[in-house]
């Protein structure tokens, strides 16, 4: 029996290693490509014959990544912050007060998740032009926030329903605290784990947004990383080393964030879905 | 009877164990969700409804004039051979990705639910692509599939085979898009299935072992039914995600050759921006919303019915 167990363990470990190696292929190609010389036409599988870190500097300047990083960071931080405030505030009554109106509004928020954002694009574009908000950080923040509010409310409401004891709020109410005070003093601090999840999920997806950015941020001064990369790729089809370097730099912040906060990311995704 | 209960409740309340229940009309506290509601109304609901209106006009997207043309755009849509091509692709991306992500995601979750070495490293690596922009993911796989100097062709040539132009072949490239989307997001399905597996009580399996159930019987009669909530959420998430695929298509094929790998999103994009055909783009948008709605509701209804109470 013991022997059989050990053999199955070894078998499944081997399978896991094969799967892992397969999933690493694109990363291997990306990293080796980024380090090769411009005139290195060796196979994508080959290691670079000499390492060219200067590709990163060149790509950074040529694709104006500095500017793009700042724009992306402003938009991501702004939208994530507003998502947390508006989202948690909205989720609280929707999770707690079971009135007919609230049930309808909750359903509405969930139903919006099904609407493909691009379906609203044509009139939205016109509206943004008319409001004079084209090529502003504000419009990118608002669009991204609107797109992620339903998911945020869904996650917060599920968390409040399943983990926050009502008694705490009732006790505070008896002490005469106002609803807003109860929310910010008692409920919101207890939401920390799910706030971390919302923060990570929304940051990752807003950082990577291309759909909204390409429509509403065409001006070079406000362009985000994805738009800068797309432009850079278009001009450098023959110089993929630089494209690879730029791509690595653009994904570094979220990769680091993910590796540190993995725990929350995974916990939030799974708890929200399986319990909800 | 109820009086008795009330009495005992009051008695307990008196001792300070349970507070008496106040029968009060519940407040909606609607002002707390008002800001969120305004944001989604202005940036999603209103433009969406307005899009339906625009789909009945010949608007070019920029001028102030637009003419009401009734069902003209809808007629045009149903006669346009591109519509069918694009709908077919969109369904392939939506349904194909959903099937692959769920089957492979479940297999990965079953693997990682076993006691193996390097478990968390494997999980992290499978999950890592989720956080990378689909656009960048498209470029990375472009390096792999490209005709000139692509990694795939190097392997083919190593075996003495001919190079293939996978991205330029309209029969193949929609499948490559499905593959890349699956590679990128299979991690989400895996994580959700893993959480589902870990919430299944060991008692069920022990009882089945006593009855002498086979591995397959245990999977079919215990694991699968108890995973139904996870399957529901995964299928619905993947269908919605797959049907609105956009960035990765632009990065890999640009929708081409011709319209061969175009999805409804990329098709709408080109109608609006390259061809100034906003009315028609809106009509395609209405069709897209309709298809997404139908498929997500069908999936939801089908899998919800199969859920059991554990």
TrEMBL record, chain A:
CDD domains: TM_PBP2. Keywords: Cell membrane, Membrane, Transmembrane, Transmembrane helix, Transport. Residues 69-261 form the ABC transmembrane type-1 domain. The keyword Ribosomal protein does not apply. It is found in: Cell membrane. The chain crosses the membrane at residues 12-31, 68-92, 104-125, 145-161, 182-207, 242-261. InterPro entries: BP-dep_ABC_trans_perm, MetI-like, MetI-like_sf. It holds the Pfam family BPD_transp_1. It is a multi-pass membrane protein. The keyword Calcium does not apply. PANTHER family: DIACETYLCHITOBIOSE UPTAKE SYSTEM PERMEASE PROTEIN NGCG, MALTOSE TRANSPORT SYSTEM PERMEASE-RELATED. Belongs to the binding-protein-dependent transport system permease family. This is Carbohydrate ABC transporter permease.
Automatic annotation (TrEMBL), chain B:
Signal peptide: none annotated. The keyword Transferase does not apply. It is found in: Cell membrane. The keyword Plastid does not apply. The chain crosses the membrane at residues 29-49, 91-112, 124-147, 175-195, 226-246, 278-303. CDD domains: TM_PBP2. Keywords: Cell membrane, Membrane, Transmembrane, Transmembrane helix, Transport. Residues 87-299 form the ABC transmembrane type-1 domain. Gene3D superfamilies: MetI-like. It is a multi-pass membrane protein. InterPro entries: ABC_transporter_permease (IPR051393), MetI-like (IPR000515), MetI-like_sf (IPR035906). It comes from the Bacteria. Pfam families: BPD_transp_1. Belongs to the binding-protein-dependent transport system permease family. PANTHER family: ABC TRANSPORTER PERMEASE PROTEIN, INNER MEMBRANE ABC TRANSPORTER PERMEASE PROTEIN YCJO. This is Sugar ABC transporter permease. It comes from Halobacillus amylolyticus. The lineage of its organism: Bacteria, Bacillati, Bacillota, Bacilli, Bacillales.
């Amino acid at each position: 029996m013991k022997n059989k167990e050990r053999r199955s363990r070894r078998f499944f470990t081997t399978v896991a290693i094969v799967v892992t190696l397969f999933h690493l292929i694109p990363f291997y190609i990306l990293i080796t490509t980024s380090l090769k010389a411009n005139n290195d036409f060796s196979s994508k599988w080959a290691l670079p014959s000499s390492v060219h870190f200067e590709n990163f500097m060149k790509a950074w300047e040529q694709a104006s990544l500095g500017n793009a990083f700042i724009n992306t960071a402003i938009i991501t931080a702004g939208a994530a912050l507003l998502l947390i405030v508006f989202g948690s505030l909205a989720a609280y009554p929707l999770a707690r007060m079971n009135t007919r109106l609230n049930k309808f509004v909750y359903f509405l928020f969930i139903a919006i998740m099904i609407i493909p954002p691009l379906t609203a694009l044509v009139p939205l574009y016109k509206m943004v032009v008319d409001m004079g908000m084209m090529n502003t950080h504000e419009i990118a923040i608002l669009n991204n926030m609107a797109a992620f509010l339903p998911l945020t409310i869904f996650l917060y409401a599920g968390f409040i329903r399943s983990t926050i004891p009502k008694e705490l709020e009732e006790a505070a109410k008896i002490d005469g605290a106002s609803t807003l005070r109860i929310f910010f003093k008692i409920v919101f601090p207890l939401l920390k784990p799910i706030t971390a999840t919302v923060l990570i999920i929304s940051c990752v997806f807003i950082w990577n947004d291309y759909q909204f950015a390409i429509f509403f941020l065409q001006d070079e001064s406000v362009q985000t990383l994805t738009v800068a990369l797309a432009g850079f790729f278009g001009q450098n089809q023959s110089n993929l080393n630089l494209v690879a370097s730029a791509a690595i730099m653009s994904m570094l912040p979220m990769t680091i964030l993910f590796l540190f906060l993995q725990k929350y990311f995974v916990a939030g995704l799974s708890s929200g879905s399986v319990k909800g | 009877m109820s009086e008795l209960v009330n009495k005992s409740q009051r008695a307990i309340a008196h001792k300070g164990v349970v507070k008496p229940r106040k029968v009060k009309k519940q407040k909606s506290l609607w002002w707390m969700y008002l800001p969120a509601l305004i944001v989604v109304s202005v940036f999603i609901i209103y433009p969406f409804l307005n899009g339906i209106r625009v789909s009945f006009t010949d608007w070019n997207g920029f001028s102030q004039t637009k003419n009401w043309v009734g069902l003209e755009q809808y007629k045009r849509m149903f006669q346009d051979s591109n519509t069918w091509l694009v709908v077919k692709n969109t369904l392939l991306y939506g349904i194909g990705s959903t099937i692959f992500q769920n089957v492979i995601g479940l297999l990965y979750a079953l693997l990682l639910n076993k006691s193996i070495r390097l478990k968390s490293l494997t999980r992290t690596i499978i999950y890592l692509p989720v956080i990378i922009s689909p656009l960048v993911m498209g470029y990375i796989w472009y390096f792999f599939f490209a005709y000139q100097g692509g990694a795939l062709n190097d392997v083919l040539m190593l075996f003495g085979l001919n190079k293939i132009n996978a991205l330029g072949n309209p029969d193949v490239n929609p499948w490559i898009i499905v593959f890349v989307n699956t590679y990128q997001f299979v991690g989400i399905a895996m994580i959700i299935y893993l959480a589902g597996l870990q919430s299944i009580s060991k008692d069920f399996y022990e009882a089945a072992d006593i009855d002498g159930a086979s591995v397959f019987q245990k999977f079919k009669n215990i694991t699968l039914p108890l995973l139904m909530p996870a399957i529901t959420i995964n299928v619905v998430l993947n269908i919605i995600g797959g049907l609105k695929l956009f960035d990765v298509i632009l990065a890999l094929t640009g929708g081409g050759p011709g319209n061969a790998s175009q999805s409804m999103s990329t098709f709408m994009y080109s109608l609006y921006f390259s061809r100034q055909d906003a009315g028609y783009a809106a009509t395609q948008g209405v069709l897209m919303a309709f298809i997404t709605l139908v498929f997500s509701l069908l999936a939801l209804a089908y899998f919800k019915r199969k859920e059991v109470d554990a």
